[in-house]
Structures are given as C-alpha cells and as structure tokens.
UniProtKB/TrEMBL annotation, chains A, B:
PROSITE patterns from the UniProt entry: HTH_LYSR (PS50931)
The species this protein was found in: Acetobacterium tundrae
Pfam name, any one: HTH_1
InterPro entries noted in UniProt: LysR_HTH_N, LysR_subst-bd, WH-like_DNA-bd_sf, WH_DNA-bd_sf
UniProt signal peptide: none
The protein, known as: LysR family transcriptional regulator
Keywords noted in UniProt: DNA-binding, Transcription, Transcription regulation
Residues in HTH lysR-type domain copies: 1-58
Amino acid sequence: MNLNQLYYFKKLAELEHYTQASKELFITQPSLSGSISSLEEELGIALFQHHGRNIKLTKYGKGFYQYVCSALTELEKGIEKAREKSGSYGGVIDLGCIPTLIGDFLPVAINDYLKNVDSKTKFNIFQGMTLDVIEGIESEKYDVGFCSYIENKQNLEFHPIMAQELILLVNNNHPLAEKDSICLKELSGYPLITYRHSLPIGKTISKYLKTNHLKALYAYDDEISIGGVISNTDSAAITAKTPFLYQFSHLKMIKLDIPIDARLIYMVYNKDSYHTLHVNSFVSYVLENECNLPL
Amino acid sequence: MNLNQLYYFKKLAELEHYTQASKELFITQPSLSGSISSLEEELGIALFQHHGRNIKLTKYGKGFYQYVCSALTELEKGIEKAREKSGSYGGVIDLGCIPTLIGDFLPVAINDYLKNVDSKTKFNIFQGMTLDVIEGIESEKYDVGFCSYIENKQNLEFHPIMAQELILLVNNNHPLAEKDSICLKELSGYPLITYRHSLPIGKTISKYLKTNHLKALYAYDDEISIGGVISNTDSAAITAKTPFLYQFSHLKMIKLDIPIDARLIYMVYNKDSYHTLHVNSFVSYVLENECNLPL
DNA sequence: TAAAAATACTCCATAGGTATTTTAT
DNA sequence: ATAAAATACCTATGGAGTATTTTTA
C-alpha cells in the first residue's frame, strides 16, 4: 500500500468513474485501474463493484473511505504545519520577551523585519519574566527570547542588544526632586525600593547598592509597579528608564552614577536547537540592525 | 512522500536512534537515513537534529509526529476493518430478520454454520418487519435478510427457505376449541383477528379469507400480540404456527385448509451488491442445509 | 578507538505509461 | 458504434541494499 493509492481511491470513491478520476489525478486510466486493483487485492476486499459499464463503491469501500479521508486530512494538516514553518517566505517565529521590551523595542524590531526582510512572517509573542523566557527557550517553546543574562547556560547563546539606563525615580514632592543627577552615596538615609531580588535586574542593582552600603526594599517585578508606588509614597526607586514610566505624571527621573552598560538586555536562543531559515534570518537581522548598545 | 517514510519517521521519532530504529524496521541504517533525509527535504524542515553522535527530534519534528501518529492510526483502523470483512476466516455478516425467525430458525442456522463451516464468523443480527429488512438490503446495511416476499424488486434475489403453517388459534373456552382441524368456510360468523394488512403475511391471509367471504380485524404485527389477545378474548385468530405461541397456556391450535406453502419465508440478498466470501459462503450453506420446504 | 550517522554507488521492484482487448450500451 | 474498464506489456524512477567515509565521544 502507498499514499498515492489512498489519494487515488479517495478521488475514485468520490467520482465513481475511472476515466474521469484518472484525468483529475493526472494519471492514465489503466494506471488508476491497476493501482485500485492492487489496493483491493491487498485489503482482500472489493472496494468497487460494476453496475453496467459504470462502477459504484461497495459497502466496504464506503467504510474504508471514511478512514482514508480522515487519515489523509490529518496527514495534510501535519504537512501544512511543517511547511508553514519553512517555505521560502511566510514562516512562523515564536518569541519570548520580558515586559520591558514588549511595547517598545520588540514592535519596532518586528515591524522593521516585516518591512525590510519578509512581510509574510508570523510572530507569536509570549510575555514573561526572564526565567520564564529562558525556560521556554530551553524547552523549545520559543525560538528566540529577549531577556536578561543568566549564568551557567552553556547551551544558550546570549547576544546583548541594548542597554537600559538605571535611574533614580522620585515623585515631585520628594526632597531630591530638584536634582537632575545624583551619586549613589548621596542616597544614604532615604527609603529606597527596587526590583525583586530574584530578577536579574534586582541582582544587578543590589550589587551597586551594596558597594555603597545602601539598603532597599527588593519587592517589585516591573516598572509599572514601581512607578505606581513612587507616585503615591515618598520612597525613591532605582529602576530602568523605560517608556512605561511616561504614563505617570508627577514623577522625576534622576541620573545616577551607574555605568550605562550596567543593565544589558540580551537576545537569546538555543544553540543545540534546530532553527528554521526564518528564525536564523530574524536573529541575524536583529543583530545587525536593531542593536542599540553604548559605544 | 510515501507511507513507509511516515512509518519510519514515527519509529525513529520514538527511538531517536537510527541504528536501533532501522533494526526494528527491518531495513538498513543507510536506507533509513536516506528515507528520512528525503522526507525532511520534501517538508523543507529538519525533523531531527544532532546532539553529539546522537539525534533528537526538533520542535518541528515533535509537531509533525502528532499528525503522523493520528493519520497512521486512522489508516490502520480502516485497513483492519476492511480486512476483518475478508480474510480466510473470521468475517463479519450483517443480517436483517423478521421477528418470527429470531428465536428459532436463525440461531439454528447460525450455530450450524459456525460449527460446520467457519467458527470465527461474527454475525450482527438486526430485527425488523419485512419492509425494514428489504430496505436494509437495498441500502446495503444488511448483507442477507430473512423475510417475506416483496414484488417488483428486480435487484433482489429471493430464495424460499421455509414454509410456515397457517393455523386457527383460539383459547380453550372458544366454541371451536374441541376441533383438531377445520375448514375456513366453517368460520363464518366467528369474530376473527389476524396480522395487519400492511404486512405480507396479512395480505396472504386476507386472500384466503376473501375467497371464503370472511371478515377479520387486521391489526397485529406479530404472533406474541395475537397470542396475548386470543388468551383473553373469545376471538379466533389466523396466524403462523411459530414457537412464540408455546409461551401461552390455554391456547388451542387448529389445522386449517390452507395450503402448506401459502406462507413462505425467504432469504434475500442484493444481486447488485458485492458480497464477501463469507457472505456467499453463508448464503450457500443456508440454501443447501437449512431449507425446510414442503415436498 | 569505537559507535553512530552520512555518503556513494548499485540494483531491482514497481508505479505509471502505451497499446490493445473486453464488456456493455 | 461507442464509452468504459481491464489486460498485456514496457520503461524508468526511486527505494532499499552494500561498501565506505565522516564525525565525535
């Protein structure tokens, strides 16, 4: 038995006419006849019967037809899914991304790619914390991730794509609100909040605070939470400068003496995973055109 | 693409080891390697990737695997169903049968066939009125039917297989209960019931009653209904003598002057339909061994 | 070095083609 | 006479084989 026999059988079952079916199948009538004969022989049962000079499906052919249809449909779905990942255009790319890039870097990168490289590519975007993104990359749920750096991941390839400036955030009533820039050591005595310590950015900030003997409340996951708190308390926050913060009025962003490359965001992918041409193409494009690194 | 490639892919996806898979598939490792390569090429996507000297399914291979599995499962179900109808033994035969033979003729015929010809045959028995049986034969729902004769069915082949004696049925209190045999014309004046006129047996009986200027209530579908009525009224009934009547006590069966072959029951099948070897074998067996006709 | 997969090539089975015959309208 | 399917025969593609090389643990 082979796949063509099944396609031939399906068509013949629908038309109940060898000559007609053979035309639609782009084979000759004797070829179709032989193909069906050998299928019937292999099954040990007549799928078609003669009614005068014409043919009709038998009871058994009708039964077999149902199974063949669903088998072929299922197979074709599989082929289509596989092909939509490849093909010369129109691939599918699954992206994992931390919140801070979702509204800013990522749509720009994707739009540029669609405009300049392949407008038929479909992007599935999943949002999550860095650890979620990394897990998705390792499990191959995502093709490419955008997140912080994580150590001891030999199978992952990290490429820095942008630096986020770390700033001091206060509301307009805060005693430091007058300043445009400030040193970390001047913060001593002011209540400070920042990201949860389990996040890479929390760890990074913690490093700078410790060398300056500063304490802080490490409790937040993202800039929106931090912005909300700062709007309504007299705490100050160390946070990444992102467009999310612009939604709050009455906030003041103050430059800090933290190196511009202290907080880097990376594009990451699994070195051991197979990637489609589309994925590779997107990765290359981002590396060459969308990186925004200091110096 | 061909079916073997799919079977090969499935096995390789499960074992993730070419040499091992090729053994289980009874082909050589290079053959398997080539087969999978061409499948990957046709799909335009890598289904497996290298991990050192071993291989692993890719994300895309995993997706494709799901579809291939269900397609192959579906196909195999179809093949199995088709083969179970044929095969050298163990076929399936669908029978339609009127109630009067269900408990008597049919189980005997089937048991004899299972004992003497093919013990692996499976019989699906469906009960219905003659017209239901005929409809099932015409629609190929049934392979073989047992029922009365119906006219103007050129595509159906009827073979008489038994005669049922038509008798007068009364209860023990009936004035005629003393008699062992009686002529139809002696029934004038007694209330009579019999089968519904829409049934073939009702038509047959009606013919004999009319030639003797007798009237009757044509209202019943089967012998059990008739037996029940006769047990509890002082009507008499013209009915077929069947084992169903033995469940009633206090009933008397009286011979009538109706020819023994007035009521014939037929085996019927569709001349235009394809029949498996098993069906043909059963039909022949019944004709040769289970017929019980007068003279 | 040994185990695994890929490559190079060879061969034959068979899918599909052409020409023709058989069957039924 | 004609339309439909089956049969007979032929050809060429490609599926599977053997022998060998490449890769990597």
